[in-house]
Amino acid sequence: MKIAIIDDGVNSSSDLYVEKMEQDLVVGDNLEIFIRKDKSDRISHGTVCAAIIKKYIQNPCIISIKILDELTRKGNVNKLCRAIEWCIDNDVNIINLSNGSVYYKDFQRLRNICNRAFDKGIYIVAAKNNNNKYTIPACLPNVIGIKCWKGIFINTYFNKGYKKIQIEKNTYVGIDFLVNSVHKLNTKSGSIYITERCNSYATAYFTAIIYNVLQYIKDEFRFNIVKQNIVRNREWCNTLKSISYLKAAYILDLSKSIFTEYLFFDFKYIDNYFDFMKIYDKTFDLVIVFNKHDKNQVKKIKECIELKKEHIRSVILCKTVSNEIIKFLNKNDIMFWHEGIFKKLKNKKHKENQTPIVYFLGNKKEVIGIINEIKELFYLDGYYALKSSNYEFSYLYGFEYFPKGSKYNKYFNNISYKYSPDIILAAMDCNKIDIKDDIIIRVNKALECEIFSPKKKNSKKICTKKIKDIYKSILEYYS
């Protein structure tokens, strides 16, 4: 089994006990990968990670891929993506990743390459940014995200042998485990090297745990099953943090009310239960959009899933979901996501939101299309615009979703703190909005956009159908 450490290089000639690398590689500035020649005896960050892994694993097969400068520890997203791509092409089993990106323009590229690794059956164990910023890959649902834990460990859910680990119950945070990062490492000179508290060294420890679990699980790639061998909390292990990993899915739409032209993933429609039985893919993801919950409908869905459960990787449950379905998926160890996750969110107290918010009201289908176009204009001009909505199924369109009836002001505080966007574009389905200095854009039946600010003196109403005029008005308002 191969472990790749993507970092600033592993120096086997340092004072720490590190086995000779199976391969010692570096990603060049031209993105070519070659054997590393600039070796040193310095205790680099990657060397410490390798020593932690070695402490908890017997004879690990470690591949070092250097993408960061050893002194500055700086790199770029191109080298990171290239290193992960190499792991995909060379049958690596586990990737230990101490680095990631907090820059929004890197997110989609990293998401795409991590989706490829997930499809290949690679476990990526990644550290969250030490400043607690939203980090890709660590915060992706198909990556095992790690933070170090500074409190007292209460191993309520954990199997014996896995010490000093906590689970992050709030899935919205995007991290799976809170892990010990302080380790005592023997040196060749006879002293003890004690690692500091940081997310990277917690990640290395958890990489060793994943390796040891995989040693005795002779099963095909099952992300949730590996977690279950560490944590005795089946529902937590089976519940996905988000649906951003979807590349393609089959959709059983019992409501007939989703806007397929805005789905962020490729899809094939299943018109009825008989079509479901005609799916012959070896592995697939399934989206079920419920209409109502009668016993007969639930029974038929369970029967279909039962017959195809060996091939279903995950199930996305849209609209209100019965506990019977969730219990059924848990019993069969099928990964799933459902809207009820948002109702369990912990609304932590943050500073009052200072991020500008543009509220869009009116025709839902048109609003979604307009927001998508405006977001792209912001992106081209170097602004991080975050799409958010309480529209039904808006998470299928790539929006940050929050349920109707929730306290949206607290919600906007949360997402502003989590993502640090430059502006929030909010599609709202509600009768009354309490705003301060923000803009409302109302889309009428003629598909004209009326732009105004209710609480700004001398605010002029502007009506237009042109997206660029809407965008220009937003920029002028906040300039």
TrEMBL record:
SUPFAM superfamilies the record matches: Subtilisin-like
Record-annotated Peptidase S8/S53 domain positions: 2-148
PROSITE patterns, alphabetized: SUBTILASE
InterPro entries: Peptidase_S8/S53_dom (IPR000209), Peptidase_S8/S53_dom_sf (IPR036852)
Keywords: Hydrolase, Protease, Serine protease
GO MF terms held by the record: serine-type endopeptidase activity
Record GO biological process: proteolysis
Active site, UniProt feature: D7, H45, S200
Protein family per UniProt: Belongs to the peptidase S8 family.
Protein name: Peptidase S8/S53 domain-containing protein
Gene source species: Clostridium felsineum
